[in-house]
Amino acid sequence: PLALGLYTVNAVYGDTITMPCRLEVPDGLMFGKWKYEMPNGSPVFIAFRSSTKKNVQYDDVPDYKDRLSLSENYTLSIKNARISDEKRFVCMLVTEDDVSEEPTIVKVFKQPSQPEILHQADFLETEKLQMLGECVARESYPAGNVTWYKNGKVLQPVEEVVVINLQKIVDKSTGLFTMTSSLQYMPTKEDANAKFSCIVTYYGPSGQKTIQSEPVVFDVHYPTEKVTIQVLSQSSTIKEGDNITLKCSGNGNPPPQEFLFYIPGETEGIRSSDTYVMTDVRRNATGEYKCSLTDKSMMDSTTITVHYLDLQLTPSGEVTKQIGEALPVSCTISSSRNATVFWIKDNTRMQTSPSFSSLQYQDAGNYICETTLQEVEGLKKRKTLKLIVEGKPQIKMTKKTNTNKMSKTIVCHVEGFPKPAVQWTVTGSGSIINKAKETKYVNGKFSSKIVIAPEENVTLTCIAENQLERTVTSLNVSAISIPEYDEPEDRNDDNSEKVNDQAKLIVGIVVGLLLAALVAGVVYWLYVKKSKTASKHVDKDLGNIEENKKLEENNHKSET
């Protein structure tokens, strides 16, 4: 490199400066020397090497003590380059007849430290010009320049908005520069989360280079412009008994810490933090809720519906009624929206609501009226009716001769609740050849059956007793030798239905025949009546003919 037409050596601060002597070694060389020139032009000799004795001598120059090295080819090396080494050095080769000189310019470069943003503002406020920070880069040579960036874009000075001031201070002992650039900035709301950085541009041995600082994000304070109220709930709907948490927030930074909450039915706002909690709410909490800043500005509102569900079962609990009595049952629902109601009897869902105009034993059981509120999770109500149908014992006795002709079966059909206890007694000769057998007690009915082989006529008595009454019924049974033609045991329901169907069919046929006979009689009567009328008309017509004949005869006589 050439500087002002002279050979230049670029060196890095702290490294070794190497300066070759760019002269050809002449014949008859006696010695070589290096010097540098003072600013006023006076020379200062620093190194000497004899070509004959091969010895090297270094001048007593404090700045270069123990730093110089002169090689056999007269190349001068200076260790630990300093800024003060930036001089004009001259290589001199001396013969008996001539002195040759060749100058070399030394340039020293020092890369600055990575810039740092110091004295950072704790926060920035909108609409206010304030000191953001100082970008500092130290120990640079030559001095560099500092540029500020926001989100990767250069910040250009703008009056009262962006104010930049750069200072370059040199350390007299080292000659190195420290660059300090201060930035005054007026932020906007959009500068929240903006990244500010600075870059130092400097020159090195190979040309211009840059070093960037770490980015810094500042907390930008701006006033609240909008207030928002929210309902914090784990569910999308609110029901009685739930807790309600209202949260009010402002979009300023920092956000407001206190608000006024307005509750339905309250005229004054309730001062609170950003949350307001209501526990175990009731249906009267339904309404419009509002919140505002403490100065009553910037208000927002929301509507809350507290869902409820009431169920009234009449009657409920344990109810005891007598068979045949009527029992009106009602399940009344009051709710905040449409509710679904269904009935369960003894763990089985019913198709219709229960209604009892004449209670039967099979109506007894555990009834549950249950209701749920659609789309409201967890809102369910149920009430229970335990219905007990009581009745005094009722007895019907039947008998029949068994197919083996050796015994007879006597059955005592019993109804009643609580379940009656049954006893048998026999009057007369004959023995009970087996113990009484009972059928399963279902819907207040069961049967007790015995088999006997009486040698003579006997009387059997069936006694049924419960807490309500004692009922006794007797039945005469003939000796085994005399067959019994009494009605058989109760048929089952299927047979009863078949008998009923047959009876209905017979009744239908009889009614049809009667109607057919009636129609036939009416038709016959109409036929007879019509016949008589026709005969009268014939007789009348015949009389008219005879009268006409007589008139014709009289007319003929008159003409004669």
UniProtKB/TrEMBL annotation:
InterPro entries: CD80_C2-set (IPR013162), Ig-like_dom (IPR007110), Ig-like_dom_sf (IPR036179), Ig-like_fold (IPR013783), Ig_sub (IPR003599), Ig_V-set (IPR013106), Surface_Rcpt/Adhesion_Mol (IPR051116)
Stretches assigned to the Ig-like domain: 103-212, 223-305, 324-386, 393-473
UniProt keyword Repeat present: yes
An example Gene Ontology CC term for this record: axon
Pfam families: C2-set_2, Ig_2, Ig_3
CDD domains, sorted: Ig, IgC1
Positions in coiled-coil regions: none
Membrane topology type: Single-pass type I membrane protein
Annotated protein name in UniProt: CD166 antigen
The species this protein was found in: Haliaeetus albicilla
